[in-house]
Design a protein that fits this description.
The chain has about 260 residues and is α+β, with helices and mostly antiparallel strands. It has one domain: 2-Layer Sandwich (Alpha-Beta Plaits). The chain is built from six helices and 15 strands. The strands form four sheets. Strands 1-7-4-12-14-9-15-8 form an eight-stranded antiparallel β-barrel, surrounded by four helices. A hairpin with a 7-residue loop joins strand 5 and strand 6. About 35% of the residues are buried.
Amino acid sequence: MIPQEASLLRIYLNANEYWHGKPLYQVVIKTARARHLAGASVFLVEMSYGAHHQVHDVASEYASFELPVVIEVVDAPERVEEFLRLELESTVSEGLITVAPVRVLRYPGTQKDGAHSPSESVGDMPSLRDQNPSTRGTTTMRIEGEAQRVTVYIGNSDTWHGRNLALTIVERCREMGMAGATASRGVMGFGGHSIIHRAHLFGLSEDVPERVEVVDRPEKIAELLPVLDEMVGGGLIVLEEVRVIRYLHDPKTKK
């Protein structure tokens, strides 16, 4: 069970890094599962560079598998710190590791894989709207300063009325006039069932993780939360306070 006030751990590394002959990202995922952490997901990154200032991108390096990946783990702050101290300090020699405070709005209970059913709430957790006291607002084309980011972790087999849930959430955000939404598909992960899912070659995959991120003003996020409450059955939803440096959009320009 994850407390409402949790930590989001992000680990940035290359997919071709190994630990005792095994891909490091797989070792991290399996170690997190062995330590009974709530869940962990691995996502591919389109392009990046790090301490060596060498640019890696999916298009040019897919064949060599020298691809940047990010591992995301959400759990209680003390469990994340323990995982960092006892496991990651000895295994991750290169890369970037960050920890950020988040609020858990929904965490799945045990249910049949791929089934879309109401999830088990965290403790006596109220509805998503009740957990975000921001008032309702209107669509804005300019965002700067304090904002919020909602991240939804689900599986690619999750659906909403027969359609992929992640894509449907993005479309619903657009209909609601949210500033933007991004859906990403992972390559490996586990969640409430502690079953590891991974992508395979030639497009064949199990129930790999998917992630939807939405950033907007708190009042707009408050409008979105009851929609997510209805649509997301067995998924993890976390809320972060962020600062937007710049977001500008000309409503006369179609993109």
